[in-house]
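For this section, I looked closely at the sequence of one protein beside the tokens encoding its backbone, which the following lines show:
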Amino acid sequence: MRDSGAPAMGSPSFPAFPREAVVGGGLEPGEKGLVFQETPKLLQAVQPVLGEEEAEIPNGSAPGAPPEVRLSLRRWAVVLLFSCYSLCNAFQWIQYGSINNIFLYFYGVSTFAIDWLSMCYMLTYIPLLFPVAWLLDKKGLRLIALAGSALNCLGAWVKLGSLKPHLFPVTVLGQVICSVAQVFILGMPSRIASVWFGSQEVSTACSIAVFGNQLGIAVGFVLPPILVPNLEDQEQLAYHISIMFFITAAVATVLFILVVIVFREKPPFPPSRAQALIWSKPPEEYSYVQSILRLLHNTNFVLLIVAYGLNTGCFYALSTLLNRMVIHHYPGEEVNAGRIGLTLVISGMAGALLSGIWLDKTKTYKQTTLGVYIMSLVGLVAYTFTLSLGHLWVVFLTAGVLGFFMTGYLPLGFEFAAELTYPESEGTSSGLLNVSAQVFGIIFTIGQGKIIDHFGTQAGNLFLCAFLLLGTIVTVFIKADLRRQQANLDSEQTRLQDSRHIPDYGL
């Protein structure tokens, strides 16, 4: 029951808080959250203290209550679960390419047909990005998460119907379904990080979200050569392929069920002041088409689209054709080819995680992105000239260096885009980056594949080196217009200025 004698919000004795920071909503019953002390110290004295870091929060907030910026404990479950089903989807992308020669023999199709089982992931993304990005903005994270995990699960089960050599079209159908699921996955890391995490951990959270996708590629390199040995007996081969497909389908099913149970649309309170400003805007003010037009008129972001596409497209091409290149120089080394791919991606995951932590500490987006880009080029040049030396341990070493920087670039691109384009939707900016990556990925995979067939692996890798050099030059011209960081700083300054004018009530 509100005390009728209490001073009203906005009166001289009780100054109003800034309008742009007011955020409605409350926690679900029983939900817990970490509390940032956003109310002035004089007012904190009238609030019950339930713990240093964690407190039960009533469902809903009273009208006129001070704005809250809080971190929900659920955020870690959300990002880790997303990372897991992203892992499963990425595994299905590379599971054919990592044992390219075995599937080539089993289905009796051309090398180009097997390559398309990977490239279909890139192809389907391009026309479906904008409908899915629109859904993400209109319907939110939960619907997109459910759709992505459900399609990933369905595609995995469809592949179980392709265990005969003449059923190659069925495995293509399953892979296409999984590729559609990827459209609901790739643009989510920066959106999840921004919606659920505070300003001092947002880049780390984005790195964790990207981490799952890269771990899936790593598992996709190492597990298929172990589960599916290179056998001549097609019945035995079908049996081993069925084991791999069954394991994948079972894992995808469990993850879909967990998404249904755990995933939520957004936390009950904004995790940062930048998010509080976005939440306070009326929904009718947002126009999806206008958002895309604003993004495409942002010169720095357009340059980042090109640079990101060149780097990630090179990574897609290398991942798809790695088995073919290693087997060419080291015949019969399918398992080691998978391990080289594993080294490439595992070192990249370390690079991605360290990049995210570094960004949260330093906020040096432009410098870090450029430095990682240059080192990606150096790593690819080293890999190019050591692949044919005849020493597998050298290939492992150079692949590790290449992966650390090239894969470590992925979350950097997402987070740099979020900074350059704030307050536009992270799903839309990430989606445009990924479209660029898919387009360049298709071009580079086809181009490098043809060059390898006619001129050898070294020429194919030099082809990619030329485009990484171009991407490095483009990155130099991107200006570090960090709009999200500026919004957080402006909001903090406004809060401090208002808190100085709150009178002493003698509390």
